[in-house]
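An instance follows:
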Amino acid sequence: MVQIIQICKRFLFYTILLLISSLTLKNKNVTANDFGNYLSWSYAKQSRDLKNLKDFFGSVNLLYVDKRMLEEVLFQSVIFDDWEKAKEASALIEKIDKGNVSSTFYYLVDDILKKKNPISKFNDSHADFLDVNFIKAILLWTTDEGELFNSISSDNCIPLLCLHMGQRLIMDKKKGEAEKFFTKVEEKNFSSTRIQELLVLAFLELKKYEKAKKILQKLSIKDLNNNKRKMSFISQNSYLLNPIKTQRDGVAEVLYNISSWYYQKNLFKYSIFFGKLSLKIRPNFNAARLLIVNAFNEIGFNQMALDSLSKINERNTYFMSFIKIKSNLYDEIINKKSFLNELKSLSQSYPNNWEIKLLLADKFRSLEKYQESIDLYSSVIDNNLIDNKLPVLYSRGIAYERLNKWSEAEKDLKEALLINPNDPYILNYLGYSWLDRNMNLEDALKLLEKAVELEPNDGYIIDSLGWAFYLTGVFEKSIFYLEKAVSIMPNDATLNDHLGDAYWKHGRKKEAISQWERVLIIDPNFKNKEKIKNKINVGIK
């Protein structure tokens, strides 16, 4: 019956898509294969099937699709780095809708790549698609119109335009005029790493070293040996911060700004499109690459995010950010061991980099190589490589506990609590570990009650408290908290198992059996599968 329902749902889905496709594909000379391809594309989009998406955009006949589909092809072709297809789509869009904003941006980038002096085709009509200030920023780099430049002053410009106006003035060797624009941006005290980078570079160029130093301290740029970079290094290696030196750089910066704007609005397709355009004309643009990677992550295109990380090097000021993302991506889409050798190599090359050591230690712990992780955690602690030892003590404590070295684990967890007595996760781990060993039950209960008070919506922590009441024989309270935990995390087998035990002890045996049966539905390979089966048959003695 379930299969029949699924088939019907699938049929309805494809029927709806077919109807939609008839509105998208032009009727003239359209074949059944065209409809099939469209359906395949629509389904691939929904299922995030990258291969079928690429296949569709590589083969679709653009002569028989409407403007909406042409724009979709343009966007996706740029996202997939198929620039020939993007060019074809842009040319057809221009015939239908001259001055279309997406094709205009494509041609802007195309002109720059062909080393043409791009003549701006932007006007006020494009402001329907974008904030008008982005259009003005583009015009600052693509025109020399006095009217536009005269309309932007440091007294009335928004930070975006102040920033680009200042950069354009520096490029035009008008440093005296540029300073007041950067000062206006500085006054806003932005937390954005990229804005701070540009301000450091600008004040260095303007020989305002104290201002540059002040902002550099907030940036806290470090090399892979955890040596904090000083002004002298940044002055000699300014290229690491991607300074704006040319018109090409300026346009890339605006495209990055647009990409960031769309990212903040959760419009990730548009964010990637403009980010890719930015990278196309400036391949070493670190901030744009990081933004693209994060956007790919957000839409579930993890392999494409990983592919975007293949072109980074160790001198990149964003290197550690990329490495952390890369580590997570490998865990999600590839065997965890795949990234291990790269981290080992980095750790050997940079023995004082505590961030790499901790990444490697966490990786070992996730692979159940607990002693290896303990050795690395200990190296970070013993060599005073990190100011805040709390997360390292907590992680090492977990590793010790998993090796059944409880005295060492307990010592680390207690020391971590001395640093922060209000960390709900440490409170929970120590409390639950005591419960698991049937020791310090009253103290464990106090810790867990405090943990729930501090983190009232965490299913695992609530489960721990419910289990504490179970072990102390307070079954009504146990059921109250365990039901709450299961309502938050209904598909967690362990939580459902605990609730079943509490039901049984409270005399609610039918509910208990139902709960245990649910455990095996949720996880047929549950670690305590045989125990669950036994409880279903004979209950708890």
Q: What stands out?
A: Confidence is low (pLDDT under 50) at residues 1-44. The chain is about 70% helix and 0% strand.
